[in-house]
Amino acid sequence: MAAEGGGAKPIAQSRMENFRKVRTSEEESPLPFPDLPPDVVEMKVKEGSKIRNLMNFAMAQMELKGSRQIVFSGCGRAVTKTITCVEIMKRKLGGLHQVTKVRYKTLLEVWENQDPLPGGPAQNLTVHKNVPSICILLSRDPLDPNQTGYQPPEPRHGLGTQLGEAREDMSSSSTKGLKRPLPHPREELLTKKLQVQVPDSLRGSGSTDHQPDHHH
Q1: One digit per residue, pLDDT tens: the chain, 216 residues?
Q2: Strand locations in 6-149, DSSP E?
Q3: Residues 6+ positions from 116 with CB-CB distance below 8 Å
Q4: What pTM was estimated for this model as a whole?
């Protein structure tokens, strides 16, 4: 990271808390993918970008306008948001080939001194900052699987298959411990009724359901 300053006194003599960032620009560089069509859409993701707005535009390009390829790029704090956009599009469309490239880019930040020296010129500080950057190419058409960063398409119904397997595992585990089918509730009730303890005084009568007769 380098800094350039202008003014009557060196920047080191000024207090940094008096500086305010007034402009940030990104060094232009070509996309790291060979043989891209000239009209390929590049989604430049910024730190303050709204994912919903990005995805609405990107999905319209791929579904309504019939684009075959699209590039998502971001640097610095926007790297995570860039990856999130890519994963959303892969889940929604499916069957997309992917190539990921990671590199460094240079950001130019211009800081302005809010408390310049009396009678002196305004002091500006230009900062050259190297930050990590990511570029991800998504394509409906097959890409070279031997190039660095290639990922094949994911199955569109992978989630449904996993849920089906989970249901089968749950149903098999729930019946694994049963050695015999459960009896009907009515049969179970009858069985309990038959298990009646007979007093010793009645066991010799030959009947387990002996009731005294009442004569009127």
Answers
A1: 555 554 444 544 446 678 888 888 888 889 999 889 988 999 999 999 999 999 999 999 999 999 999 999 999 999 999 999 999 999 999 999 999 999 999 989 999 888 777 766 667 888 999 999 999 999 999 999 999 999 999 875 544 444 455 455 555 544 444 455 555 555 555 455 445 455 555 455 444 444 455 554
A2: 19-26, 41-44, 69-75, 97-113, 124-139
A3: 7, 122, 123
A4: 0.62
